[in-house]
Design brief:
343 residues; alpha/beta; Quinone Oxidoreductase, Chain A, domain 1; Rossmann fold; 2 domains
Length: 343
């Protein structure tokens, strides 16, 4: 089968950083699904792995952890899907990625594609939806229903215009019933956050305390950090409400002073979210990701949630994937970038 991958870690400017590969077609065993990939999306994890933040164990390495496609075959123990089913999923970084014609994935982390979306629009959602959903409801313990309070609790999303922020705003507002304040620093990213339902925006390049005071916002009960944990750690500890919850999805670089005293005095819950954890460790709640994606698909079809696609890069090829990686590395990506299947 044809695939796009890498033999060694190279900068995105090098035409050999992502190349066309010819690999043996995978075979479904156990609870795996063999999926014919119709569309993929690109995430920061792809860029990190291509650049060497996570070394290649045995080249070639196929990237890609956001896909939508059609089930072609099922393993003997699979019970949730049949050949011909349309699906979407994120996969797991300990297995080959989905930048290929065919892909193997455990059915317990796969959802049925929203009927109302194209394959490309659906491929934008799995990784970020799982990340935001788990961060909000499993890590921080946010409610799963609209609040009946006169003023609902507030979620502060740091990095509201990115992939995770874009879907987190929607889930927090329309599923959890929270008030949402998102950080954004450019006119176009501010407009995007507002379009998705953010009640207010603040500038993350300025002190969080000053920015919240500027808009008359009380200390948030929840904070979701989607970029630069070390840059915002002290500020998050300063503004989080007593007995609040902070979740970050970004690993720190090097030794970072942790504001233990402030968080302890406020009895704050601090957690990390990595949506790959369940699949990497085979946790008992692995199948919850199947349930989350099915729920998200239903909410999309009901008009509660929407796709976060903002750019379409054409069919998947080495050249189009290199261009997509370059866009993410620019740091100016809003929403999600998707590509069709290999032409």
């Amino acid at each position: 089968m044809r695939a796009i991958g890498l033999q060694r870690h190279l900068p995105v400017s090098d035409p050999e950083c992502l190349v066309e590969l010819e690999l043996p077609a995978p075979v479904a065993t156990g609870r795996d699904l063999l999926v014919r990939v119709r569309a993929v999306s690109v995430n920061p994890v792809d860029v990190k792995m291509r650049g060497g933040r996570i070394p290649i164990a045995a080249p070639p390495l196929v990237l890609g952890w956001d896909a939508a496609g059609v089930v072609e075959a099922t393993g003997p123990d699979a019970t949730l899907f049949r050949p011909g089913d349309e699906v979407f999923y994120a996969g797991v970084i300990t297995r080959p990625g989905c930048d290929a014609e065919l892909h193997l994935v455990d059915e317990r982390i796969v959802g049925r594609k929203p009927k109302s979306l194209s394959f490309e629009d659906a491929a934008a959602l799995p990784l970020t939806t799982l990340t935001a959903w788990e961060a909000l409801f499993e890590r921080m313990g946010a409610p799963r229903r609209a609040s009946d309070a006169s003023r609902p609790d507030t979620l502060l999303v740091i990095g509201g215009a990115g992939g995770v922020g874009s879907i987190a705003i929607q889930i927090a507002k329309r599923v959890a019933g929270l008030r949402v304040v998102a950080t954004a620093s450019r006119p176009e990213s501010i407009a995007w956050c507002r379009e998705l339902g953010a009640d207010a925006t603040i500038d993350h390049t300025k002190p969080l305390r000053d920015e919240l005071a500027r808009i008359g916002e009380p200390d948030p009960a929840y904070i979701l950090c989607t970029n630069s944990t070390e840059q915002h750690l002290a500020g998050m500890a300063d503004v989080i409400a007593p007995q609040g919850a902070i979740c970050t999805i970004v690993e720190t670089q090097g030794d970072v002073p942790f504001p233990t005293g402030v968080l302890q005095r406020k009895s704050v819950r601090f957690s990390w979210e990595l949506m790959f954890t369940k699949a990497m460790f085979g946790t008992k709640d692995l199948a919850s990701q199947h349930e989350i994606l099915d729920t998200a698909a239903r909410l999309v079809d009901e008009g509660v949630l929407r796709s976060t696609v903002t750019e379409r890069a054409g069919p998947l090829s080495a050249a189009s994937l290199r261009a997509a990686h370059a866009k993410l590395e620019s740091g100016r990506m809003i929403g999600k970038l998707v590509l069709g299947g290999i032409a």
